[in-house]
Every structure is written in structure tokens, then in C-alpha cells.
């Protein structure tokens, strides 16, 4: 039997079928790029996180250090991780250097201009330079401020706390005052530390304004925001506690969410303090001035979220249409079958590409605490043994903590670790802060 | 599979039966599709791999190295040419000056110790080069001891702070008006330099430099 006559319109279709493999090869490049397993940087970060929460800060820093030097899209992220690790290890110069690296990228604009923005939208969101959510940006600035507070460099500390509050306002339009208040009420941490810095700089008027603002935003902090409490304190404990928000994806990987929510994690504990074996009355000062789990529920990148979700929905539609076309093609014969199968394959490929490139960016700092307690103490000059007890089995002992006569004061940063209760020993009494 | 289809699949290639013009047309189309595929691959690879580093692009409203040069050049020139300073040099000889770091009074702008020192140290360096006989530069006691502890070779520390008492202090104060919103960050800087007589706290010379910097936040900022 002779072959059926070929119509002129069927021939271009046939050529389309012939060229289909090329299109598919081109289409699979994005898939290859996006469907890779965890990178060396991500594996190191995961390993560092484990070491960090075990209290092994040296190992954590050793894991992170090589990647923090790479000026790639994770530069700010890896330096934020490294800086916080150094801070927990009391290596202030190294912590400052790492956090300043992160600070500079976060403060710059246009680092994602051009190829990175296009790549983040079209190919993979992880191509963009990580600058963090507003709460992560605020925390980079807060920790820089804390380093300067630890060094009694109150001018730079003040500047960093101010910038932390600026970063938090990146969330929404500046004209929305109610929203700003809501956000700042969850981050009174920086406002209180700002007030303390102003107080140390001799600007009691500005200190009073900051403390009043903190108490107004969160009335539970009224005692902690009492200027007199800070004026009389010669020791300040800044205590990080708990596990910060983690990024996770919902649905088909295109919807990003932070977990757990504050209600899932439960209420924050109130720390108890023992000084030389005796309970120290913290009164209301032990109230948590921030809850990062609550702050994380407000996110900034709504525009790219929408693009990602749209791509995912269109991808699902194309896959569905491709499946229908494929079923139709299977039930047909001849050139019509080939054409329909080719169209089905194209639709499926396009749908898969869109699905593969609509995966959310889940890079995260990973070692942030849930909250940071600020405990202003007034201790007699000399060495003291302290125990911070969270009431849930998490304790930290501090041996030989030095206290000086006012106006000399000292600030100490402690990272509470469930599996590493210390003790932290202060073998030498540092000289008083100027 | 029916016979008709089998025959159809076993028949000669389509382009063999076609008129020469159509065959060329189909061949050209195939070539174009191959080229488009290649372009797609290359563009995807460029998008993924051709991105600049995190620190090589981007702009900031913070003070930069260029600002450091401009500010210190201007201040050194103004200080050296100031009539009161010239009169003091004529009356007292080389002025013994200690250099202090910048006092950061900026809103939301960190000025770490290194840059804070650089903004006054460069004025010292410029004046030491241009007018070596007019000023005697005395390193701050802490800096002097730190440098001496490091035993740096080739670094002229100048006279010991214990050997010579500075009479003047060169210091600076940086202040800003900062406006940071979701869409932009703009900073107006006022950098005030002062040469103060330590003995009576009188200001011998004051100079200021003003600049404004602004950046607009973009899509992924």
C-alpha cells in the first residue's frame, strides 16, 4: 500500500516534531540548574548549625569560614552566620568583621540588579544575593550594636540600633504608622538598647524618649524600660534563648512560610537568676522584649512570591493541558497523532520548567534565637557566680563574673544552649570600661 | 499498528518527496530552531553564572573611599591655609598635634574604629607631606603603644606621647540627617573638623564639609 500523500501543511509540522528534541534539551537546562541537591555551602551551614547548638562554636566557625570568604550570592548570609558564631565564642573583632561584611551588602542597593533579578524571576530564586527578611536585617544590625555595647562604644552601638529599627520598617509603607507600631512592638529589643546607649552618651532626654517608646509599644516591658533601672545597673546580661524561625515551603514548593508560629512554639519562659546561690529579683525586667517567631510572620518579598505562585499555577495548568493533549494524541492516528503528541510534550515540558523554577528560596540564617532577654543588674563590686535558669531544664552557669563600681559597667552576651550548660568561667577580671 | 500506518512510518523521509524549495525551507526552519535552542541554553547559563559578585555591584548611601579622599583633601587644604593657624605657627613654631578618631554622631550609620581613624589620619598624612615643618604629629598614647607592641618596621611613630605633650587636638564629628523609607535612603552629612587648643579648650580652627547621598531601593532590595 502506498504511503498517504503528504500535504504541504503537514511538512512544517513534521519539521517541528523533528526539532522537538532541541527544544527539550534547551528546556531541561533550567531543570538541571534547579534540581540539584544541597551545595557544599548548604552542607557546611547545616553542619555548623549542629555544632553551634551543641555549643561547639570553634567547629561551627571552622565550617563557615571558607564560605564566608566567597563573594557569591550567600556572602551576606554566611557572614551573618559566622558573625553570630564568633559572638557566641566572645571573639568580638572577628564577629564585628563578619557582621560588617553582611551589613554592607544588606545596606547596599542594586546588588541584585540585572542578571540576578532576571535569574531569580526566571530560573531560580536562589540566584539573587541574600539580603534577608527585614527581621534578619534588623538582627544583623542589632548584633553589631551589641558588639559595640560590649566594647562600650556607645556611639556606634546607638547607630546600629537605629539602623536595626530602620531595617524593620522596610516591611511596609512608611505612612502606615499603625503597622510600624505593631512591628516595633515585637522588636522593642532595639528600642531599649537604643535608650540605654543614649543614656550612656549622656543624652537623658533621648534615652527617656526611647524607653517611653518601648513601654508604650509593649506595656509588659514597662519595668525593663525604666530609665532608673538602667542608670543603676553596673552589669548587663544580654541572653539569647531558643530557636528562631525556620523557612519552609508549602503546597508544591512555591509558597514560603516560616515555622513554627508563636502559638505552635508556646509561650516564652521567664528566666530566673541566681547570684551566688541566692535568687536575684528581676521583677518585670525578665520579660522577653522580642519574639522573632512573631516578627517572621510578616514578610517582605511579596512581589516575588506572587511571581512564583503565578508561575506554579501556570505550570500546573500547562501540565494538565499537556496530559489532555497526550491522551487525545494517543487516540488519534497519523500526522495528527504526531502533532498532538508533540504539542503535549511541549506543554508538559513548559509546565515542568515553570514548576521547577517556581521553587521558593529557603536559605536562612538558621542559628537565630527566638528571643533576646535584657537583664540589667546592680551587683556589688567583685566577682560573682551566676546561674540563669529558664525553668525548662535549660541553664547556664557563669563563674567569676566581674562587677565594678558605677559608672564603670560591663555587658555580657550569653547564648543559652540546651545541650551545653557551661559553666562559662571568667578567669581574669577585665579592666573597667572607660 | 495498522498497515497504513506501518507503511507510512516505513516510507521514505518526508523531505525526499518534497519539492526542492520546500525541502530547503524545512531545513532552514530546523536550523533556526536549533539556533533558538542554543540561544536559550546560552542565555540560561549566562543568567545563572554570569552574575556579578555580591560586593562588586550595588550602591550605598554610606560614606565611601572617594568621600574619604574628597573630605580629607578639602580639610587638609583649609587647615593648612587658615590665617589663624598660620599665625599660630608663626608665633609658636611647629604645632604639636594629637589626632583623635571621628566621633560618630550619625543616625543609623556605623563608623568602625578603622574608618573613624582614617578620616583624621589622612588629614595628618596630607599635612605631614605638604607642610612637614608646620606641624609635629603626636600619635595618640593608645595607638602609639599598640603600634610599638606590634614592632612595625618602617613605620615612623613620631615622638613618644610621654616625651612630648601635645598642645592641640585634631578631631572630627560626623552628623547626619537620615531618611530611610521602604523605597529610598537619603543621608545629608555634615562633617565638622576642629583643631582645639587642649590647654584652654579654645578652637583654633573649624572646618566643615557637607554632602548628600541618596539611593533608590529597587525590586529585590
Task: Explain what this protein looks like in three dimensions.
The complex is a heterodimer of chains A (434) and B (221). Chain A is 51% helix and 13% strand. Chain A has helices spanning 10-34, 40-53, 57-68, 75-88, 92-107, 115-122, 134-150, 154-168, 177-185, 188-200, 204-217, 227-232, 262-265, 292-295, 302-330, 334-356; strands at 235-241, 246-250, 255-259, 272-275, 278-280, 371-377, 382-389, 395-403, 410-415, 424-425. A five-stranded mixed sheet of chain A has the order 5-4-7-8-10, with no helix packed on it. Chain A has a three-stranded mixed sheet with strand order 6-1-9. In chain A, strands 2-3 form a two-stranded antiparallel ribbon. In chain A, strand 2 and strand 3 form a beta hairpin. In chain A, helix 1 (10-34) runs parallel beside helix 16, helix 2 packs antiparallel against helix 3 and helix 7 (134-150) runs antiparallel to helix 8. The longest helix of chain A has 29 residues, at 302-330. The relative contact order of chain A is 0.13. Mean pLDDT of chain A is 84; it is low at 1-10. With 221 residues, chain B is an alpha/beta fold. Helix content of chain B is 44%, strand content 26%. Chain B has helices at residues 3-10, 14-17, 20-49, 65-81, 83-92, 113-130, 141-150, and strands at residues 95-105, 135-138, 168-180, 184-197, 202-216. Chain B has a five-stranded mixed sheet. In chain B, helix 4 (65-81) crosses helix 6 (113-130). Mean pLDDT of chain B is 78; it is low at 1-18.
Name the poorly predicted regions of chain A.
1-10
**Element-level helix/strand string of chain B:** HHHHHEHEHEEE
Largest sheet of chain A: 5 strands, mixed
Can you list the strand order of the major beta sheet of chain A? 5-4-7-8-10
Give, in order, the helices and strands of chain A. HHHHHHHHHHHHEEEHEEHHHEEEEE
Oligomeric state of the chains in view: heterodimer
Which strands sit side by side, in order, in the main sheet of chain B?
Answer: 2-1-3-4-5
Compact overview of the structure:
The complex is a heterodimer of chains A (about 425) and B (about 220). By secondary structure, chain A is of the alpha+beta class.
